[in-house]
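Notes to self after the Tuesday call (sharing in case useful).
The group wants a holo model before anyone commits to mutagenesis around the pocket. I volunteered. Ligand is 1-deoxynojirimycin. Logging inputs and output together so the record is complete.
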Amino acid sequence: MSEKKESRDWYKEAVFYQIWVRSFCDGNGDGIGDLYGVYDKLEYVKSLGVDAIWFNPLYPSPNADYGYDISDYCDIHPDYGDLDQFKKVLNKAHELGMKVIMDLVINHTSDEHKWFKESRKGGDDNPYKDYYIWRDEPNNWDSFFEGKAWEFDSLRGQYYLHLFAKKQPDLNMDNPKVREEVKNILRFWLSMGVDGFREDVINFISKKEGLPNGIGFLPVIGSIHNFKDGPHIHEYLAEFRKVCDEYGAVQIGEGPMTTVNTALKYLSGDTKSMDMMFSFDHMTADCLFTEYLHRPFKLIRLKNALSKWQYKLAGKAWNSLYLENHDHPRIISRYGSEKYHRESGTALATAYMFLKGTPFIYQGQEIGMTNIKLSSIDQYVDVSSKNNYHKYHLKDSIEDRLHRIHVSSRDSARTPVQWDDSENAGFSRVKPWFFVNPNYKEINVKNQESDKESILNYYRECIRLRKNNPVLLYGKYKEYEHGNAFVYMYERRRGNISYFIICSFAPEKILFMLPKGFANHTAKIMLSNYPKKRVPGEIRILPEMGLKLSPYEALVIKMKRTK
Ligand code: NOJ
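Result:
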């Protein structure tokens, strides 16, 4: 079977771990996660087998959007430490053999950034005058987080654009001075030694000329065609890519509502600016467009999305793989089962870790942290959850409205990491800044370290199996039994060696009929989340009829192909 050789860039063989520092580990005893805590836990992170860390924004920020409203791009938030402490973390990560990438948020700043404070003053000879998008009259766009996308500024006497919260004014990327500022930010961190960037809402940074009105009757998304993949996006990104290339830095784009076809423009050909893009399609298997529009989980939707990206990017671009991050509720609570916690947590890991691409693991995912259920909207802190609660479905009962927040809120994934069963889950010596999930007594790192079959140790197994395995890294993807509503099965093949990944999403025992031609083959079990039932390393003859799968059973088998 002929296959184009893929270039062997480091990030393709890496596994990333994402740290949302505020809830990771409190090292200085103020209830807030920080870089002192990170420093102490780097060996733990390394012990997972990961090769790189992505830090969510660490910069000074008034926290209107928890770090995504930056007031100084070239410093560290005092809650998290300082530049010296960051350098210590960076050096130690490098010594341990892990790369570090930062979050680059350049669609908007905080309204407390010096540039915005200056820009508000207006005046013809003000160098910051056109750093933001100012208009005498607003258009009809909605923001993603807080009502209309325009806010009147009484000092300047004009409206400014904010696609997200009011405290997140959009930068005017058409201004070459702003692009120079971005390049200076890139150089600042790259010359310190960071290895790349995850780039926030990067597909929104170029707005359509004249900022035309959107489709009025469609809330929020009605205007998106006026700023998504805008007219100059690829020119601007080429400028930034040039700087990153001087340092060999990796660039990973986050682009809400990115389709696989638009992603390819960022990832390949003349307009290639990104090494990977985060897809969103597979995040809607239990919702429509956003988690706030919840619908029951359907495996088929997940399979459609994953396979679409696998097939379309094949041979052209590299996938990024994730199930969780700081913007989505916890995956076991969504696509798995809190009842079958270990089984579904490990099945979900199996389903995505062996796809072609680079896996990202979000803090706490590796122990199967679940959604928190707070009893009042006032306990939530995320601007978008609050706005959603207060703006939509107002006629529903309080219980129903709160339920929507339980299943959709980003805060569900932002509770402190559960390190052990001591008070505050070992996250902090004092009361943490945010609620700890009450299930920390059972679900915590310490418990799982000592349990061979834990989700944590299973993640380690997945990473070990994937590592240095050319079939799992570069092999071709093929899905089987697509129509099966409960089982996700795919193959990774290179030459005559194939790995088959089989994951049941059923909460009961099922009989999975193997695809034609598979029965009676010898297969080696490489990984199983029921290790007593299917001992890894054992050679098995696949049954003629079918595999009896236990609830959320997952296995990886290796087979020699004869054709
Ligand atoms: C995407 C980030 O991941 C999210 O947390 C943030 O709120 C928005 N972009 C706006 O910056």
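Two things stood out.
The mean pLDDT is 96.
Residues 3 and 494 are 8 Å apart (CA to CA).
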